[in-house]
Automatic annotation (TrEMBL):
Protein name: Methyltransferase domain-containing protein
Keywords, comma-separated and alphabetical: Methyltransferase, S-adenosyl-L-methionine, Transferase
Pfam families: Methyltransf_25
Organism for this UniProt entry: Jatrophihabitans endophyticus
The Methyltransferase domain, residue ranges: 38-134
Length: 249
């Protein structure tokens, strides 16, 4: 498991790309000499929590799955950061009851908005826990990438149907978790977009055989890293990483 965890957090991996960017951004909003206080909503088995804790952050993870939290604790112990990772069992749709009046330097919503019933309410609850000057980090599926994936898989009929549904996905008034909706929800919560990056631009497209050699894996990782913030490639990524910031008081 240690080898798998290290590979998952490697600099060119998806977790590595998100974590490196977030850690760099956190340094600009965290008081000097203090550990960044991070809340990971639905953080599951701790891929992001452990990686951020390794950079010096203090991370609280809320997840409803006891099995996932057990994996989180084991990973944190193996990485030597168990003192900086705190597991809280509970539903992210009841955050206020779980964390009380605490406010955080960063709140993570990495994939959780795709899994909740009330996206707008859950987003608002998470945004409310971001302190003035703090960050809300959101990772959501990119509907544009889904169209491309269908076409490349030889499913043109399904690709066409997905393409025609993009207008509905772009509707910022709907209760869903598309990138446009995330930006709109952020504006309603008083947050502004600090950065927007594509995660997995090329790793979702290249044949699996490209990763059979170390050189191939390194090249794909480099492609993903360099394309993450470069248009138009970033707009084609499988997932979109949006970091929003609450203005300082």
């Amino acid at each position: 498991m240690q080898t798998e965890a290290r590979r998952e957090r490697a600099p060119g991996s998806r977790v590595g790309l998100v974590t490196a960017h977030l850690a760099e951004t956190l340094r600009t909003v965290t008081p000097a000499g203090a550990a960044a206080q991070v809340l990971d909503c639905g953080g599951g088995s701790g891929a992001y929590a452990v990686a951020l804790a390794a950079t010096g952050a203090d991370v609280t993870v809320v997840d409803i799955s006891a099995d996932a939290l057990a994996t989180l604790r084991r990973r944190a112990d193996e990485a030597g950061v168990s003192a900086s990772v705190h597991a809280v069992a509970g539903d992210v749709e009841a955050l206020a009851e779980l964390v009380g009046d605490r406010r955080f330097d960063a709140v993570l919503a990495h994939g959780i908005l795709d899994a909740v019933d009330r996206v707008g309410d859950t987003f608002a609850a998470m945004a409310a826990l971001v302190r003035p000057g703090g960050l809300l980090s959101v990772l959501v599926a990119n509907p544009v990438a889904a169209v491309i994936a269908r076409a490349l898989a030889g499913e043109p009929v399904a690709a066409l149907a997905d393409l025609r549904r993009l207008d509905a996905v772009a509707d910022t008034t709907a209760d869903h978790a598309g990138p446009a909706a995330v930006v709109a929800l952020g504006e309603r919560a008083g947050l502004t977009v600090a950065s927007r990056r594509g995660i997995g631009v090329f790793s979702d497209l290249v044949p699996g055989s490209a990763g059979d050699t170390a050189r191939g894996r390194e090249a794909v990782a480099a492609l993903d890293a360099e394309a993450a913030g470069r248009s138009p490639f970033a707009e084609l990524a499988g997932r979109i990483h949006i970091v929003l910031r609450r203005p300082s008081a």
